Amino acid sequence: xxxxxxxxxxxxxxxxxxxxxxxxxxxxxxxxxxxxxxxxxxxxxxxxxxxxxxxxxxxxxxxxxxxxxxxxxxxxxxxxxxxxxxxxxxxxxxxxxxxxxxxxxxxxxxxxxxxxxxxxxxxxxxxxxxxxxxxxxxxxxxxxxxxxxxxxxxxxxxxxxxxxxxxxxxxxxxxxxxxxxxxxxxxxxxxxxxxxxxx
Length: 199
Hints:
Helices cover 19% and strands 31% of the residues. It has helices spanning 27-30, 55-73, 131-135, 137-145; strands at 12-13, 39-43, 46-50, 78-82, 86-90, 93-95, 99-103, 114-116, 121-125, 149-154, 159-166, 169-177.
């Protein structure tokens, strides 16, 4: 019989993982978790485990990564990474955004194993399994760490909401779909249509 964690369909606290009490996890303890095929993150000291992404999720992530890589990395403006790649926002906030951008002015934040500090842009491709986590726990973690721009991609509606950080709070610049382009401040003159993310 499968356990709840083995039949995982939503992001849940990984309560069965040996280690500190929930709320007390740090990057040092997170880094000792053996590779077991699951995706883990720490938000506010709570260790979370997420289900494996779907084929649709991976396809969308791949398209967004490719377009951002072309706009950012190919023009030598910064680096673009795709999950799994750790981002240590703070000692008790360790996340793996689906896609992230670090511009050259913050390149010292990039190490061989992780990004130390806030990326300039994070992208989360939400699903029924992850949307609550993306819109609540990670939303708060990204804002408190000072991530300037956050894209929330919804495959079901084929939309992208673009959030920008102003005075420590995220404000939506709108929900974009179809032939609309994102008015990104991190990727200026972005002319990629939202529909191009969804094949």
